[in-house]
Amino acid sequence: MTMELGPRKPMLLVMYVVVICVLTASAKKVPVQNIGPIFMFGDSTLDVGTNNHINNCTAWANHPYYGIDNPETEATRRFSNGVNTADNIGFKDVTSACCADKTPQG
């Protein structure tokens, strides 16, 4: 069974796009304000394994395959080679994961 598009659906899509474009173009520019610190608690979308300073922790990300995107090709000690959700909120420029503290603790 195929779903046929009636003559209304493409027209609704075009109208929707036009309305979004008009609203975007007519929106007032709000000056950028400084926002205080944000504390975020959550699951693996927020925590990428930066647990290097926990004594007796065996879940470190210090294996070579965790640093394959690193220009220096060494482990980044994070379970993510990129930025996560928390890194993207409120920051214009985010320091790369490869610049994290790499000194083993414990």
TrEMBL record:
InterPro entries per the UniProt record, alphabetical: GDSL_esterase/lipase, SGNH_hydro_sf
GO CC annotation terms, alphabetical: extracellular region
Signal peptide extent: 1-27
GO MF: hydrolase activity
Location(s) in or outside the cell: Secreted
Primary localisation category: secreted
Keyword Electron transport assigned: no
Swiss-Prot/TrEMBL keywords: Hydrolase, Lipid degradation, Lipid metabolism, Secreted, Signal
Superkingdom of the organism of origin: Eukaryota
Gene Ontology biological-process entries: lipid catabolic process
Family statement: Belongs to the 'GDSL' lipolytic enzyme family.
Protein name listed in UniProt: GDSL esterase/lipase
Organism: Deinandra increscens subsp. villosa
